Structures are given as structure tokens and as C-alpha cells.
Amino acid sequence: MKNKRLLSIICAFFLATFVSWLIHTCLTFKPDYPIYALNEGWRVTINGKEYEDVKLSEFYKLLGNDELHRGDQLSFSINLPKDAEAVPFPVLLFRSRYTTLNCYVDEEEIFSFAQDLYEKKAFIGKMYHFISLPMDYRGKEFVMKMVVSEEDAFETLAPLKLGSQPDVESEFINDHLAIIATGMFLLIFGVAFLCITMFFVTSTPDIKGLLVGSLFCANLAAWIMCYYNVLSPFIYTRMETQIEYFTLYLIVPYCYLIMYFVQKIEKKKLYLTAALISSCVTLMQFILHYGFNIHLRMTLPLYHIVSVFGFGILIYFFVRNIIRKDITPSGMIQMSGLVAFAAAEIVHLIVYMMDTMHIPNSYYLGIIAIDSGCLIYVMCQMANYLLFITQSYAQRKEYASLTHLAYADGLTNMPNRARADKIIDDLNKTDADYCIVSVDLNGLKTVNDKFGHPSGDRYIKDFSKVLTTSFEDHGFCARIGGDEFLVIIETASEHEVEGMIGRMNSALNVMNAIYSEYHRSAATGFAFRHECPPGAPAHEVYLLADQRMYDMKRKMHEELGITGRL
Asked: Which domains does the chain have, with CATH numbers?
């Protein structure tokens, strides 16, 4: 089993590496016409202050220690190359960043973007624009005018690309081919396997982790494609940047949810508290954006803090799994994929921080890191499906009948005494508090004597359904004798247990009102572990609950006038 798990992880890693190498090295592009990068020689005006011979990539030098503010007006102008080769369908490719954009050639407007959004104080994100030029553009002055819509909107701008539109589009696709291919693969895989997983949820409950993993793949697909704006040149949508931040902020909650389903978590309350806090931070960011117009980008530092903390928890569980070896092979594969993605996210965060501090780095380093992390995760997810579904389904089919015979009550199909005894023995291995409820039917002997044993059997089966409905979502239910039942609840307060018993009695009263041939009722007694001396075995807790049940049963029999076994 261990060898299969390791082999699956290794295969996922090498397959992801091979696909990434194939995309970066084998799919080449050669333009039909020259493509010019316009980075140097710009004349820049910031709120009326002029600068000459500016590099777009070094725009931050003009700001010094200051930053851009909402309402700042910027102007960028350059004389388009006179000696540029004549090309069909000339365009400029430019990526705007949280600003409006108006473009002019010799003072004639040729492009306009987001003026209406700025006036409404709506969110203006990042977007690539193909700006069509007149055929006689060479040597003319090109001007871009911007109005900043966000605080600290940008410090650098990427050079504009000048060339024939088919060539510029093809080069853009080639430069971002890894992101496009990975994003599409993640989306197709996530949606396809989400549909497949839905068929196994009822028969294989442990597959919930894979179900969430499929949703996570689709979320990652939307994030990486929107983060690099690979949709905007071809599918015009002003929501692209909002989708980017929306899916980005969901990454950490998804990781917590996946870990919850695949991990053995001992301190669940502590873990769920951390997960809830992270999820509340995400929810708060959405509320601030859509309710108070504090845009998603402004709360990005909160995400960085939450993500680093969340990825730290992920690494802790991964190391613990290696040391303790208390996780299933399927869970370990999923955790390995998450750790690979987390490592890629950390690298990407480092690249992002280097950009903000203007430390030279490769633009493609971030792409390679995120691309590889996503591919490794999705390959691990795929390997996990093949391993988990085949083994889990085969094992369940092989042992279902044997388990049923060994641990199921023949009349009610509930767990029997043997199963209950095993659960009680397992309680001796835990330090957590728990509650045992002893339940005994009232008047079963009277029903058997007056109406016959078939009616008594129906009484038992009807009650087992009521008991299961009342307690199954909260604990373990079993029939341990003719009219004796047992419930074990691992996490509940006294008030909650009383509420469950109340719901059970209410359901019995409803049945009595509808089917009045005999009266249905049950005596109950419950006890918590903390009520017994420290170190007391679980059997003593059960005996205390049983004694309380018999005390109640005696009172109920006296009230109902029932004579029966006590």
C-alpha cells in the first residue's frame, strides 16, 4: 500500500513536470511581422508635472516614496517608430491596472475604457487591451491618459507591444500558454470529476474530500486565468479582476475543508476555530467589497496573513502524517498535492513581494511556480481518484456482507451488541468526554402478549427508526437486546442530549396519535464520562446511564400502570 501511494505521488510529479516542459519548450511561435516593445522614451505627466525619457518598467522612480492616489491624472506619450515595418491590422497591446484609459493618435481619440465605472466609483480592475491603430500610425504621437481609481494602483507598467494583431495575439497566447493550458485542464478535470464523484457520494461517504478537491480544481482554474488576465484579450469582461480576488480568497477555506475530510484531527474544536476565523476573514472581505465599496484589492494583506498561517497548519499536518503514519493512502496523496501547491504559492508570494520592492526577478518564475504547483495538485487528485475509488469500492463490496452479519441486528438492521461493545472498548482509548444514553422500551411484553409477536417486532422496528432519526446525526445507535437500545454521543452538552431525547419522545407521541392500537414510549437515562471517577472504564459510564434509565422506567411504569420486567 505504501509503495502504491509513493508511486502515485512520483508519477503525478513527473507527469506535471513533463507537461510543463512540453508547453514551455516544444510549442514555439514565430511572428510573420516584427513586434516592437515600447518601454523607453516616454514623456510622462503626473498631475501636471512633466518627466522626459521615462521607462514604463521604472515608473516607480518618478513616485519616489509617494504612491498614486484615487483621482490622480496621468498622461503617457511617445512618438511611434518611424522606421517600423508596415503591418496589416496594427495594434498596441497594453495592460491597464486600476485606471481608466483613453488613447489618442495625433490628438484623435481611438480608444476609451472605464470612464463610466470611475464615475460610479465602481471597481476597475486589470485588463489587457488591443488598441487598434490607423494604418498611417508611423511617426505619429501616441498618448495614453489615465485616471487612477485605487490607492497605490501601480508602480510599474509592462511595455506596450506594437505589431500586427494576429502576431500580437499569437505571441500573447504563446507567452501564457502554460497558464491557459493548465487553467483549461484544471477546469475540465474539476467539472468532469465533480460529476463522477457525485455518483459515489452515497455509496462511498469518505469521498467527500475528493468532491471538495474537484471544486478546488475549478476554483484554481478561474484564479490563475484571471490573475494573468488571459481572458480579457478574447472575452471582454469587467468582472475578471473581481473573479481573480474572489477565487484567490477562497483558496485558504478550501484547503481547510479538504484537510478536514482527509485528516485525522484530534483537537477538532481548535481546528474548526482556526478554519472559521479564516473563513470569516474571507467573508468580511466580500462584505467590504460589495457592501461598503472597500475593494477586494485593498484587503489583500489580510489574505497574505491568513494564507501563510493556513499553509503553516498544512505543513504541520503533513509532517505529522509522515511521522505518525496515521492517514490513509488516499488522504496522503491529497495532502502531498496540497503541500506542493502551498509551496508554489509561497514562491509566488516571494516573487510578488520582490516586485513590490522592485527587486529584479523573472516574470516567468511566478508563472512556472504556480503552473507547476497547480499541475502537481491536479495530478495528485487524479491519482487519488484512481487509487481511492477502485480500492474503496472493491473493499466495501467485498466486506459489506460480512460486516453486516457480524455487526448488524437482524430485525432492525441497526448495529448490534457486538458492535456496541467494540465502540465502548474504543472509548477507553480516548481522553475526550462523551455521553452514553441507555434506552429501554416500555410495554413490549404487554404488546407481545396482547397483540402477538409480529406486533411486538413492528413496535421494535418503528422505534428503531425513531431512535436513529433522533440521534444518528449526533452519535452511534445500537440495539443491544430485545427491548434495549444504546446511544453513544462523543460531543454534546447535557442540554443538547435532553433536546435529542425530547425529539424522540415527540416522534413517539406522533406515532401514538396516528396508530393508537398500543402506546409507545421509552425510558432513558444518560451519563457523561466526567461524572465518573478519573480513569473509570466506559463500562462504568454505561452502568450509571443504565441505572438512571431503570429509575425512570420504574416511575413511568407506575404512572402508566405497566407491569413488566424491571
From this structure: 2-28+183-396 (1.20.1070), 40-158 (2.60.120), 417-560 (3.30.70.270)
